[in-house]
Amino acid sequence: MKLKVFLHIALRYAKDALSAHAFAKAGGAQERFPHHIDLAQPFTPSATLEAKKHNLRLAAERIERVTIMPGEVFSFWRVVGNPNTKQFCASRSIVAGKLKLEQGGGLCQASGIMYHLALMAGLDIIERFAHSVDLYTEQTRFCPLGSDATVAYGYRDLRFRNSTPSPIRFEFSVLDHSYACRLTSQQPIEPREIRFSASTLPDGRKRAIATDASTGEAISTDVYETLGQ
Known about the structure:
By secondary structure, the protein is of the alpha+beta class.
């Protein structure tokens, strides 16, 4: 691990130790919960798709071992671990606004779909970052612009708190042409409808706004460069 990344992680763990967060972690019996909210996305064809699927399956195995109790915080990297190991494959990723092959590439599809489900379930979003660049056209997009959550080990995490009165868990399906995630709970969760709207700014960048359809409240506003800008 590079020294700079190691220092970032050490500082983050020190801050976490001083915080009031109780972090969810693997352990205990994996009870199947009867209630659920589902999301599915198509896979975008690419030369590195099979490597991406491998990374998503590996992340799913680790995330599915975690039951998030009421009040606990889920941290993507605390659960998935360091992607810069031989267990993960090199796949496509956005680094400094450019497409590159990175160890653990493609994991942002897992963090993104979990973020979208967390919004629908009304969970407290503690940390989430949008991508800096929009890679897709409206014809190739696999999820609404503004529903993404980029993760970079040691720097950018996805974190949310289970603000419901029920334990929750995530389940995944990595199929040939699609990717699905299910948020399961012990008690019913009435899903919120989240609306995503996008527009093009005068300078060519794209702006995406996520809104709670029931209240009209804006949840997030993100601005993206377009590839090649």
